[in-house]
Amino acid sequence: MEKTTLQRSTQQLTNMQIFQVIEEALITTPPIPHDPYKESLKNWATYCLRDRGFKVVYAQNADFAIEPKGREKLYFKVTTNADDVDDSSNWIVWDSSKKSASIIPLSTSK
């Protein structure tokens, strides 16, 4: 039982580290600013994530997924409307008034 708990806590730490890199790629230091008139939020987000070395792949029930090495895929949806956010996946939300993105991780409290 302890081994399973340890594995989960290690996985959580790794997910936290992954989300820190995602935050850097999209919020702190994106390689290019998002311009809604030039590219979609999805295209911008996938470009920024690929620029940080993430493998971005197709996802049937989300806008895209990333495949961290040796890990399960992390699924993402993108929106410009915070009211769209639900507990179906991780979210990238663009706030046009602040001209910034935010990341809303999938809730782990199911």
Q: What would you say this structure looks like, in words?
A:
The chain has 110 residues and is of the alpha+beta class. It has one domain (2-104): 3-Layer(aba) Sandwich (Trna Endonuclease, Chain: A, domain 1). Helices cover 35% and strands 20% of the residues. The chain contains 2 helices and 5 strands. The chain has helices spanning 2-28, 41-51; strands at residues 56-57, 64-66, 74-79, 90-95, 100-104. Strands 1-2-3-4-5 form a 5-stranded mixed beta sheet, with helices on one face. β1 (56-57) and β2 form a beta hairpin. The radius of gyration is 14 Å and the shape is globular. The protein starts with a helix and ends in a 6-residue tail after the last strand. 20% of the residues are buried.
Write a concise synopsis of the structure shown.
The chain is α+β, with helices and mostly antiparallel strands.
